[in-house]
């Protein structure tokens, strides 16, 4: 089963119900990026999006609540990192994998070139 493709399709189906470039639509874009990078997160998002209370509109409300709680005068802003944290908490996603991918089981044999061989 391809959870990444399933999650992206589910997100796009929800995006089709909101105005393009609206806050809810932008949440969908950020979720699609997470899904493309992280297969485990894609699996969780695909499952969560089947529940109405876990849709992109509800996720956007969490981000808006954070913005409203951190206003400076009439101005509010949520950085991409803050939005990522809020979405991960809302959907119960693991922290992004920052580790390098594991080495290949049988790494290719490396040949050492001696520059003196060319003289």
Description:
The chain is an all-alpha fold and 119 residues long. It has five helices and no strands. Helix 1 runs antiparallel to helix 2 (23-37), helix 2 packs across helix 3 and helix 2 (23-37) crosses helix 4. The longest helix is centred in the first third of the chain and has 15 residues, at 23-37. The model has no long low-confidence stretch (mean pLDDT 89).
The helix-and-strand class reads: mainly alpha
Number of helical segments with 4 or more residues = 5
**Secondary-structure element series:** HHHHH
Distance between the termini: 56 Å
The coarse overall form would be elongated
Radius of gyration: 21 Å
Portion in helices? 40-55%
Strand content: under 5%
Number of strands: 0
Low-confidence stretches are none
Average of per-residue pLDDT values:
89
Main sheet: strands, sense, barrel? none
